[in-house]
């Protein structure tokens, strides 16, 4: 096979995977016409790739509606991958690199009912350790990790928290609902959050979101240190390296920030 043929084959595989991702993200049956509009190509071209995915067992066709859903085989495959490649494993190497680069402790956490659960901690290089322990639960409203979750996770969580009342952990904790809503909107726009002195006086964290293969929010990565070393306005380098690390971990989980919709020849 020459280079041109190889390139065409790779493009065809990428396009078929883009179709599969779209149907999986849609979480409902999808028709040929809709896919044709979404990808800006002909129905016959879409149909050709759909048939390949059906033959491979990754899509199923509803004979009554002539629409397509992901198959049980694909769901089982996703479950198997998820069980063998959970967040802490996907993040470990990148978290260590970030810790080694900046020196601060690095924590990986995921949302649970009570708050943010710390799954992984890379201790700082400092002789004096200031960090949260693995297994700890952080409140949503008073932690940088929690603010990231309120911005990118379940959108019903913030109204539920503000209606129940925001607990004051320190004199610096945000307890005013309107101020908290503003804080979360800022977090959503800049894609990072801080919480200086809000959970514990003297402690700050700088956190960013992590996304999975379908674009869903799954957790946060955070730098943790004293307010002396992570200020309420963190340095540009701290923000840059944190966001880069979050992107790497998301990529490890299959997330693509700019999912190509370009069609294959």
From TrEMBL:
Keywords: DNA-binding, Transcription, Transcription regulation. PROSITE patterns: HTH_ICLR (PS51077), ICLR_ED (PS51078). Residues 10-72 form the HTH iclR-type domain. One of its GO terms (biological process) is negative regulation of DNA-templated transcription. InterPro entries: ArsR-like_HTH, GAF-like_dom_sf, HTH_MetabolicPath_Reg, Tscrpt_reg_IclR_C, Tscrpt_reg_IclR_N, WH-like_DNA-bd_sf, WH_DNA-bd_sf. Residues 73-255 form the IclR-ED domain. It comes from the Bacteria. The keyword Transcription applies. One of its GO terms (molecular function) is DNA binding. The keyword Ribonucleoprotein does not apply. PANTHER family: HELIX-TURN-HELIX TRANSCRIPTIONAL REGULATOR, ICLR FAMILY (PTHR30136), HTH-TYPE TRANSCRIPTIONAL REGULATOR RV1719 (PTHR30136:SF35). This is IclR family transcriptional regulator. It comes from Oryzicola mucosus. The lineage of its organism: Bacteria, Pseudomonadati, Pseudomonadota, Alphaproteobacteria, Hyphomicrobiales.
């Amino acid at each position: 096979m020459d280079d041109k043929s190889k390139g065409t084959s790779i493009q065809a595989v990428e396009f078929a995977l883009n179709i599969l991702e779209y149907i999986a993200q849609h979480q409902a049956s999808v028709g040929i016409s809709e896919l044709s509009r979404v990808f800006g190509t002909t129905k016959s071209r879409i149909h050709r790739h759909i048939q390949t995915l059906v033959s491979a067992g990754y899509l199923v066709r509803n004979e009554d509606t002539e629409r397509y859903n992901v198959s049980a085989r694909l769901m089982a495959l996703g479950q198997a991958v998820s069980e063998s490649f959970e967040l802490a494993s996907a993040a470990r190497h990148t978290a260590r690199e970030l810790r080694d680069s900046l020196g601060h402790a690095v924590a990986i956490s995921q949302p649970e009912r009570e708050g943010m659960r710390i799954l992984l901690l890379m201790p700082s290089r400092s002789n004096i350790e200031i960090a949260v322990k693995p297994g700890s639960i952080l409140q949503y409203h008073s932690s940088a990790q929690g603010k990231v979750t309120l911005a990118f996770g379940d959108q019903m969580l913030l109204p539920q928290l503000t209606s129940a009342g925001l607990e004051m952990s320190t004199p610096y904790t945000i307890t005013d609902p309107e101020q908290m809503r503003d804080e979360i909107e800022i977090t959503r726009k800049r894609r990072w959050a801080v919480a200086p002195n809000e959970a514990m006086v003297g402690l700050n964290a700088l956190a960013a979101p992590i996304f999975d293969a379908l674009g869903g929010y799954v957790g946060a990565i955070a730098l943790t240190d004293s307010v002396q070393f992570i200020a309420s306005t963190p340095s540009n380098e701290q923000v840059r390296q944190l966001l880069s690390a979050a992107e790497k971990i998301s990529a490890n989980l299959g997330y693509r920030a700019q999912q190509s919709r370009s069609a294959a020849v």
